UniProtKB/TrEMBL annotation:
UniProt keyword Signal present: yes
Swiss-Prot/TrEMBL GO biological process terms: organic phosphonate transport; transmembrane transport
Signal peptide: 1-20
CDD domains on file: PBP2_PhnD_like (cd01071)
GO cellular component: ATP-binding cassette (ABC) transporter complex
Organism for this UniProt entry: Nitratireductor arenosus
Family: Belongs to the phosphate/phosphite/phosphonate binding protein family.
Designated name of the protein: Phosphonate ABC transporter substrate-binding protein
Recorded superkingdom: Bacteria
PANTHER family registered for this protein in UniProt: PHOSPHONATES-BINDING PERIPLASMIC PROTEIN
Keywords: Signal
Keyword Signal attributed: yes
Amino acid sequence: MKKLIAALLTSAALAAPALAQDQVSEFRIGVLGGENAQDRMTSNECVRAYVEELLGVETKVFTPADYDGVIQGLLGGTIDMAWLGASAYAKTYLTDPEAVEPVLVKTNLDGSFSYHSVGFARKDSGIASLADMKGKKFGFGDPNSTSGYLIPSIEIPDAIGATMDDGVYFDEVVFTGGHEQTIVAVVNGDVDAGVTWADGQGAWEDGYNSGALRKAADSGIVDMNDIVEIWKSKPIPEGPIVLRRALPADVKEKVTAFLNGLHAKDEQCAYNMAAGETAGFEPIGHDAYESIIAVRRAKTN
């Protein structure tokens, strides 16, 4: 009998770690900066509720003040899932290649998964192009934003034939903290122009089909008739939804399948999460971001 009990205890001890690997006690979703924290919570509440029901554990949304807060949360294991920009994914990967894995990408109505960095100014400012920005104040979102800084920092100097250092071409280059903050800064006249992200599809008057301008137009922060586009980048690969690699396999599978089917399940929830119109979230892998990783690596060396 003693031998039988010992064998059972040994079997239980061996099985316990395996069981624990298939369980999580809570699930944490990180949302990049770009709009105020309450709006980010509201936009992702439906996703939080669905995931909580799906996994049967408490699910929380975290809204750090800046992009790096989400990146560090993923790296440190305090955030399990996030929709990153391509540059934020590149930084995460370059810091620790094993931290996260990209699983899905937001697609546009035409099935593409690209977007643009868009420069814009108040219509009544008389600014219609980058040429009109000489000697003026330019606002950018966050140093870890793809469209809010990385791509403009490469393409705009090429376009103007000068660096973006203060006083060289622009009088001053400032970081506003996020996409919504940039839009507000332009509308309020705190900066002469700014950059943000948009899919570049649909009508300008609507803020295009999706992106920060669409979200700001929907919420009444900006009337698109009051601002004009002054610059647009080349297409940028949309950033991935990533999951922390150390999560149990079944958790990753369930969450990925849910988000893959979200548009069909709840189109309004998908609209809220995607900041506008979307054809849904489709599978994506690391290879799609090799070019952005190379750019990010080159910028930091």
